[in-house]
Design goal:
The radius of gyration is 26 Å and the shape is elongated. It is built from four helices and nine strands, in the order E-E-H-E-E-E-E-H-E-H-E-E-H. With 143 residues, the protein is an alpha/beta fold. The strands form three sheets. The protein has a five-stranded mixed sheet with strand order 6-5-4-7-8, covered by helices on one side. A two-stranded antiparallel sheet has the order 1-2. The chain has a two-stranded parallel ribbon with strand order 3-9.
């Protein structure tokens, strides 16, 4: 409780105001946490994705993104990986869970045969649940 002292009076008067300073401090700390954590949850590999008219499906809490860039290099998340070390790196990323859904992103200039080779690489490593990522039809035509 807050009280105010008046000069000339020995009685203390109570004030009925809420102190919102601690609440504002907590909100600012939470805002900073979310501002720092939000960019860490996205993938920063730039590819030109093809459009799709399929309805969007819900994403898991921690998705595993595999990207095939225009120069046919492979990225797991934001890290480049060679085809030889792909299996061990994928097992490390998924914790060895072969049932993990892999979100495959590829630049639209990647030939179909090369994309099929990457999918065969996933299959050879034991990952059979593959989701192809594309832009929604409205976003693809906005470029």
């Amino acid at each position: 409780m807050a009280s105010r002292i008046r000069e000339g009076s020995d009685d203390l008067e109570e004030t009925h105001e809420i102190n919102v300073t601690p609440f504002i401090d907590v909100m600012l700390v939470l805002l900073i946490i979310f501002m720092v954590a939000a960019p860490l949850a996205t993938v920063d590999v730039n590819v030109d994705l093809p459009g799709s008219t399929a309805p969007a499906s819900p994403r898991p809490e921690k998705p595993v993104f595999m990207t095939v860039k225009q120069d046919l290099s492979i990225m797991l998340g934001n890290d480049a990986v060679s085809r030889e070390a792909f299996g061990t790196r994928m097992d490390t990323l998924t914790g060895g869970d072969k049932e993990t859904r892999i979100f495959l992103r590829a630049d639209k200039s990647v030939p179909y045969g090369d994309l099929a080779e990457v999918m065969n690489l996933l299959r050879a490593s034991g990952y059979l649940k593959i989701a192809l990522v594309g832009l929604e039809a409205g976003q693809a035509t906005a470029k």
